[in-house]
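Protein modeling request. Please complete all fields; requests missing the sequence field cannot be processed.
Requester role: graduate student
Desired output: 3D structure, token encoding
Chains: 1
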Amino acid sequence: MKIKHWFAAAAMCSALVLTACGGSKNNSESASVPATAQSGADKTYIVGTNAEFAPFESRTADGSLTGFDIDLLTAMAKAGNFKIQFKDQPWDGLFASLNNGDLDIVASGVTITDERKQSMTFSDPYFDISMMVLTPKAKTFHSLAELNNMQRVAVASGQTGDLAVQKILGAQSTKIARFDSVPLAIKELENGGVEAMVSDGAVISNYVKANGADKFTINKVPEFGVDHYGFVVRKGDTATVEKLNDALKKIRASGEYDKIYAKYFSN
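Delivered output (267 residues):
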């Protein structure tokens, strides 16, 4: 979640979705392309992700990494002539791993925010996203103000939905029920333990489509506005972010971006 949010909160399982976890082989998946003989061309960029955020990153039944972010960055590596290797790990450790040098890039549905820009560098935006409110099928929902009247609202810990609900209910509100992943938060809603769940719209829609649209109502909330996902590098790593931006431009121009988008988001 994956508004992807990075300060605090709990981990997502290291076998991933945005949304459902599959089996796992190991914590790394290679997606390498031939390097040139240019200076630095042999470097393999280690890309951290949390495979709990389908359709952006998750695992298939055989344990392979899949998702929009995975395919997009793999295509970018090919177009930009650099090598990458994915490392699936819990969400709450991604940014620490980036800062200490264990990772070079984070690709995990990370929402670009002014707060995050203070401690990390983002690529150009690669996906537009809006928060949505998920409620039981029979419940009506009209505005964010209604969250104040609820006893429990579910979010995935540390993701954008968590941050958005904190702005409404307060960061220390006991009404916020935090879960390690979006699927767990939605399952609590299904079981009646919470009255609503807030997360990135594309992730909610993917989960509901796969797990029973007859159980839930997806509520679009204009007040949330539109946010953007970006790939993350260490603060000030201009060389890597320029390489990412150049590759992103190339796959947009070639039409490859549109093909990958249609694979995951066509109706």
